[in-house]
Amino acid sequence: MNKKELVDLRKEFKLNSYMMSIKEVYSIYLKKDNNEIIKKELSYFDMLEVEIKELYLNNFKKVLTGTIDTKIFELNFNSENLEESTQDVLYKALTSEERVAEYADKIVEKISENYTYDTDIVINFVKAEYYKGSKKRREEIDESVEDSVQAIQFILCSINKVDIPKRVLKFDYEERTFKSNSALDTTINLNSPLDGFMFPSFSDGNMDVNKVIYYSSKSKQLNLKFVEEVLNCTIKHTAIEEKERFNAILNDVIGDKIKADAMQEIYEKINEKLEDSMDEEEPTMNMKEIKRVLEDSGIDNTEVLESSFEEICGGDYEFKVKNIIPDFRSKSIKIENEETSISINPRDLSSVKQVVDKNGTRCLVIELSGDVEINGFKLEMEGEDSSKLIPFAKTQDPEVVNNIQRA
């Protein structure tokens, strides 16, 4: 499931959506202290009050909000034959004519057995149908082509924190009196789900019942207990973890030092695969492809790549391309030490060199095509005798050092 598909689905969590029909909402209140269920409520969505509908819609939309591989993860179910596996329960809930509560209770039981939260929680389930349209290209301008629509059923779940408000003085309009609030006046935080998931995943209108979309409230952190014991899924590495693993492999192959132009060439060759891919694809790179990139970039010591790859990634692993290279659409490369931080575009890496002047001082020198501004002031020119300056490759960005920060 790619970013566009998530965005399109998320947009339909609104009142009177033409492309999505919500059938049932099932809510369970689970106590932290003894894992006791103190309330279950199954409602037909169309029969709820408008204000409650909006609260639920906002809650479910949050479960599909976030960056892929940072807060949103497409996970594979465990291939082992588990008794009463979550995949099996969810599939039955999806295809059965019975109410969603009959199967959701089994998921709630797993959550109760693997409780990881520091407050009471309310678990919301929704069973819905999403109508995904796909337009065909018109061969002639005046030709009318009807949209083909495919119905996709899905189940979405959100785990929500129960907040106990602070003691305050409130005004009771009914009794026309001032009084303190009660500890029983709890509220359910529907704006920030703790965990959540959607089953099944889908791509191009095709459902994939072997995968589930998992939501994490904390960026780059998965609730491992929830993922493994409740969803019965295999752990997927976050974008940060993939980048760290890829950099560790490069460090084993190249060493701890590299020329900036060599780094730029590696990133550009990997980025070519990202640019050549279709929007709906998620390009990946395996060990053989990475080895080819390194060899084409002039890196000779690739014989250690296989052992490093095996040790760090554990076998036949494929990196998501977007996770292991910087963003070529922005100044995503940081050049820094304790005193200075400079951000540049990856395409300008070859313009960066660390040099030592005639006095033995270590310098970072950049030749620019225009004036440099710092906080609105043009930087005064020093050392006008160009023969004394160290030559340096030109950068294509005259504002490359606009964000220099000095301690």
From TrEMBL:
InterPro entries: DUF4317. It holds the Pfam family DUF4317. This is DUF4317 family protein. It comes from Clostridium pasteurianum BC1.
